Amino acid sequence: MRTFYHDNKPGDCRLAHDSGEELSTEHLNSLGVLYYNFPPSSPKSSAQVEDLAKARKYANRDEITVSPGAMGPVYEEKIKMFYDEHMHEDEEIRYILKGTGYFDVRDAEDKWIRIQAEEGDLLILPAGIYHRFTVDEENYINALRFFQDEPKWAALNRREETEANTHRQHYISMRDKGFPA
Ligand code: KMT
Ligand code: NI
Question: Does residue 133 line the site of ligand 1, with CB under 6 A?
Answer without folding.
Answer: yes
